[in-house]
Amino acid sequence: MIEVREVSRNFGGFQALNNVSLNVEQGELVALLGPSGSGKTTLLRIIAGLDFADTGSIHFDGKDATAVAAGDRQVGFVFQHFALFRHMTVFDNVAFGLKVRKRSARPSKAEIAERVNHLLRMVQLESLGKRYPAQLSGGQRQRVALARALATEPRVLLLDEPFGALDAQVRKELRRWLRRLHDELGITGVFVTHDQEEALEVADRVVVMNKGGIEQVGTPSEIYDNPATPFVYNFLGHVNAVPATVSGGVAHLGGLRMGFAEGEAPEGVGAGTAFVRPHDVEILRDGDGILVTMRHAVVLGPSVRVEMELENGQAIEAELTRHRFTELGLERGERVLAAPRRAQLFLDDGRQYTVSCLTRPVAPRIVPSAEGGIRQRRP
Amino acid sequence: MKFRRAPRVIPGLPLAMGVTLLYLGLIVLLPVSGLLFRTFGLEWSEFVAVVTHPRAVASYKVTLESAAYAVAFNAVFGLLLAWVLVRYDFPGRRLLDAVMDLPFALPTAVAGVALTAAFASNGWLGQYLEPLGIKVAYTQLGIIVAMAFTSVPFVVRSLQPVIADLEPELEEAAETLGASPFQTFTKVIFPLIFPAFLTGVSLAFARSLGEFGAIIFIAGNMPFLTEITALVIFIRLEEYDYAAATAIATVVLASAFVMLLITNSIQLWHYRYARKN
User: Fold this and answer.
1) Which run of H or E residues covers position A77?
2) Is the Cβ of A34 closer than 8 Å to some Cβ of chain B?
3) Which single residue of A132, A243, A330, B124 could bond B273 by disulfide (Cβ 3.0 to 4.6 Å)?
4) A159 close to B (CB below 8 A)
């Protein structure tokens, strides 16, 4: 088990990590997810012992490892750009961690060969042991890097953007393969990624990081369904942010009124932002909704992404089925109503609510655009 | 069939190749063949007599030995210097980097005079070394110092870009795999910079063998003791014994050629990992 306790790290005035605490359970695969500069790689490097915290401590299985050197932490580290030793064959790369051991702890030549061949079989590269890294594809190199990290039988496997340098197809394949490998070996793993899809698909738990702090820790579905903060909401895929106010126990998004769950409605008045997933946005010609101007539609396989603009010029997106899109027959520049079925409301004072559409019909009142025509699409 | 060629930065292979070959012919091959031609003016027995003359043989020994010491010193010192210049940031780093070219930029005679002034028994370095029993000027040590001085930039300048290109991740990877700093250097870093190191060292060695200006001021030039081969050639020329001069020069030429051949083969063998298939 890895325990990170109140770790902070400052790089010449830049606060890379700010009082971060995190537990990783035995056998778990955890993703550190965040944008660049969020501190995720710094945290991984501090766990590995390649960087050291200014304050705070790192514990492995309850023992303080804060001052232990990387080589003595029994961690396997996989680098984004593989960091293979290009003057060694694939076999020698994988064998490196065993060959550099002190004589007393070093396995015999035959044992090393057996272990290396076993690992190469596992990463499906058994026939390429005599090749040099320059003769391998990106995906193969990454698997060599993985086998090399596993050769010393580490307690923890740490991966820094393990698929970042690979193309989309190989990436998808390796992702599934890593998950399977993890399930087979049962090794504790932590990997860094900026790709939310990767984190949600591969990890048991996701740690969302931002500006040197942890925003939320949870299972992929917890993170996706119940984002704890506006940042997490924004970071996990497309989302619309609509300004909202609260009064009289009802949320107002533009002209639309949305209701709180039974007994949850806040008292008094307040202001904040409502986050709406594009697939939760319905487009209506009349009824209850937010007045928007249709700008652009993009066909994405079975669904259509419709880009619209609020009165204040802010962009809002809806995702419709192709059938519904054809049925509506939307025209560019047309004024229609966007009706979120469901939204996550974050008030400025930090309170958070789920609001949903009040079905009570309100008389439609579409005001024709004063200027008319199509305005330039906003970048 | 019509061939379509990708646009090149330097226009036209025939033209570029022609210019290259012309220059190679004019600047390298013509003088070298002239040298050989002169040498062929000698009978084989005369040639052997000239190049195995005890004074010539003593000069080979002095030159080779001194060059070997100078290069051994530069191999260690130059590697260290290149490493420090690339990996560490300290006040005056750029200045030190610029000063590195001084041995190249300085006329070698000026370097020789400067070194002699510093290491002579009343010079500002020599006056402290002399009481310790270390005589530099007018001894073989002086030759070594002069050779080391004029050839160190070869090692540093060959290594700098290669060290700068080493990804820090390689060292970190070795570290997480449990390698000691010494193992990381011998098994990971040194093999990667070895070809450049070899280039630098062999150039430094070649330069040391051929160095003339810087050495004759500090060496004392005593026949059999501190006389270098280049000086023996020069003396033969002064005696209007062109055939003898060119004969000894041929020996130097042959040894330089053999050395380059050996270092190039070692590099070729070492670079096997970079080949695609």
Assistant:
1) strand A75-78
2) no
3) A132
4) no
Q: Kindly give the interhelix angle for B44-51 and B242-270, rounded to the nearest 10 degrees.
A: 80
For chain A, how many residues are written? 379
The structure tokens 């903060």 sit at: A229
Q: Which domains does chain A have, with CATH numbers?
A: 2-234 (3.40.50.300), 238-357 (2.40.50.100)
For residue B238, the one-letter residue type is E
Q: What's the CA gap between B248 and B200, in Å, rounded? A: 26
CA–chain centroid gap for B179, Å, is: 34
Secondary structure in 3-state letters for B74-131: HHHHHHHHHHHHHHCCCCCHHHHHHHCCHHHHCCHHHHHHHHHHHHCCCCCCHHHHHH
Amino acid at B117: A
**What pLDDT does B139 receive?**
87
Across the strands, what pairs with A31? A191, A206
Report yes or no: A308 and A318 within 8 Å, Cβ to Cβ.
yes
DSSP string covering A348-365: TTS-EEEEEE--------
Residues in B touching A85 (Cβ below 8 Å): 170, 173-174, 187-188
Closest chain B residue by Cα to residue A97:
B177
CA distance B124 to A294: 86
Strand-pairing partners, residue A298, are: A305
Neighbours of A367 (CB within 10 A): 7
Fold of the B57-228 domain: MetI-like fold (1.10.3720)
Does B4 lie at the interface with A, CB-CB under 8 angstroms? no
Segments making up each domain of chain B, as ranges: 57-228
* pLDDT tens track for B64-121: 999 999 999 999 999 999 999 999 999 999 999 999 988 888 898 898 898 888 888 8
Per-residue pLDDT tens digits for A240-299: 888 888 888 888 887 788 888 877 788 888 888 888 888 888 888 887 888 899 888 888
Pair of tokens at residue B64: 């080779």
What's the whole-model pTM score? 0.78
Residue reference for tokens 């820790």: A217
Question: A255 with A355: CB under 8 angstroms?
Answer: no
CA dist A189 and A27 (Å) reads: 7
CB distance A213 to A18 below 8 Å: yes
Tokens for B153, please give them: 């930039």
Q: Does B49 touch chain A (CB under 8 A)?
A: no
Verify whether the Cβ–Cβ distance B276 to A134 is below 8 Å.
yes
Contacting residues of B for A76, CB less than 8 Å apart: 176
Helix, strand, coil shares, percent, chain A, to 5: 25, 35, 40
Question: Quick check: A369 pLDDT over 70?
Answer: no
Q: Does B174 touch chain A (CB under 8 A)?
A: yes
Question: Is the pLDDT score of B41 beyond 90?
Answer: no
State whether B175 and A83 contact (CB < 8 Å).
no
Structure tokens at B229: 């081969």
Q: In the numeric block, which tokens belong to residue B255? A: 């040894």
- Residues 6 or more apart whose CB falls under 8 angstroms from that of A169 comprise none
Helix, strand or coil, per DSSP, at residue A179: helix
pLDDT in tens, A91-147: 999 999 999 999 888 999 999 999 999 999 988 898 999 999 999 998 899 999 999
* DSSP-assigned beta bridge partners for residue A208: A33, A216
Would you tell me how many other CB atoms lie within 10 Å of the CB of residue B139? 18
